[in-house]
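job 3f2a | input accepted
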Amino acid sequence: MTHQLVRIGFLGIAHLHSASYVQSLLTMRGVEVVGMWDHNDAIAAEWSSQYGVPRFASADALLNAELDAVVVCSENAHHRPLVEQAAGRVKAILCEKPIATTVADAQAMIDRCAATNTKLQIAFPVRFAPTVIELKRQLDAGLLGEVFTVNCTNHGSMPGGWFTVPELAGGGAVLDHTVHVIDVLRWFFNAEVTEVYAEIGDSLLHPGLGIDDAGLLSFTLSNGVYGTLDTSWSRPPSYTIWGDVKLEILGERGVIYADTLHQYITVASNAAGKTRWIGYGSNIDRGLMTDFVEMIRTGGEPSITGEDGLRAMQVALAAYESARRGEPVRL
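job 3f2a | predicted structure (331 res):
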């Protein structure tokens, strides 16, 4: 089978996911990773060398290289200017989550892409976990009957670097991890969060960090479902993997529990200095990139839209407001 050649570039590679995204693209037939650019010379040089992807001197130079699409993996605060710079010069943009750090920036990105007929997709790879896909199928089939509650976690390791700089990240663990789970719940139920109450800890787990590293959200969806989300950078360096995304959904006919990353074998290695969980089987980042490439090839619409990114981000921002005010916030 022949594939239409899809030419993709990376605008910003500061986010850790850029590594798995480029590794996925480099193994796909009919996909050429044309080049990359990042404002940090040292990081750009190392990333370019590691993955064998040509480095461009400027974002404009990369955008002039006849690309079909770009992947934006910059620091969160830089998403808007890079997306606006690329809109109208490529067919499609995949932007790392969260879409932005403010509602105004997110809306401006959506509007710019709409005005230039550029497809904007947001990187929510959890939707491509087999457990999540099967859970949605069972919910759509009515297996649980009426759903009452959802109990969710998204724990991770403290990423360090720019993730802990408020001006670049826009928020800490609550912004970083809330958006994944809220996006999945919106997808499951076709419903919006209408109210959120949050308790948030700044430097609670990592003294002196200077940004939130733990949070507990309680929320209500427009379909009447009540939920909680434990979101934190609580996994120590010795932990087996980076973290987890878990969902427990209670309905009138029972409970479904989903561990979205439970595809691993346990390996004890003296070379690694610890016991680790080594993943096998599906790769959710590859699922996301395959979906993005197929959208470009077929001319279809994004499966995860800018609006999806905006709605998920709004819940995280409302959580911060709730913690500041000490009361529930309605959306």
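job 3f2a | Residues 127-284+313-330 form a domain with the Dihydrodipicolinate Reductase; domain 2 fold (CATH 3.30.360.10).
job 3f2a | closed
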